Amino acid sequence: MVTSTRHVQELANAPFQQLSLHAVAKEILQPKYTMYGFEWKDQRGIEGTGFVRALRSLLTAHLPLLLPSLKTIIAEGIESDIRLGRTARNLCLQPYWMQETRSELHRVSQLSSFVDPESLPLLDAFIQESMRVNPSDASKAMLAGYLRRLLTDNPVSGRRKAIEPFRFSDGLLVKAGDWVCLPQQAMLRDERLYPQPACFDPTRFLRRQKVQDLWPVWGLGNATW
Fold this sequence. Notes:
- By secondary structure, this protein is mainly α.
- Helix content is 50%, strand content 7%.
- It is built from 12 helices and 5 strands.
- It has a 3-stranded antiparallel sheet with strand order 1-2-5. Strands 3-4 form a two-stranded antiparallel ribbon.
- The longest helix is centred in the first third of the chain and has 21 residues, at 63-83.
């Protein structure tokens, strides 16, 4: 695991031919077992059109078996989007902040029929603080069974698997086959970055100019969302 700003930046900018998120997905999903012997490469985008067609054919052939699970995943995902993870719950648990965010929204909506998200800094800060306190919630609603436990009970993010050896600028070596990641939960509760981390305080994000590298919730590099 890496936590320094330099390591996080180098992890985010590492060539996907060396540190691969695609290889992580392959190792978690184990397609050779879960997709009737189907296999893919550790590196994304090198399989070609034949791979895509074969995958499409397999999915189409097994669609009747997949539909019940897909309906459940989609339904839970929509619910997650509606609730914005724990944000709605935190609003209910925090009457003061509910009133403050309502006042902000009402004030801004009086000025224009179009509400620019940039004009709602308090609501944005509240969402960020909700995600800091509960960073894994966005995944929990989308996953089921073993996969859900694997990705949400282990509070890390930014997973990459080394396809070939990768060395950070300070000499730290990630051997081929090893994973490197960020201890997301620990970083979001680091007192040096977030004073009184156990306290729910959206104003901490009002004092920040922008989301920093040590904010791993959105993902890393070209996998940021």
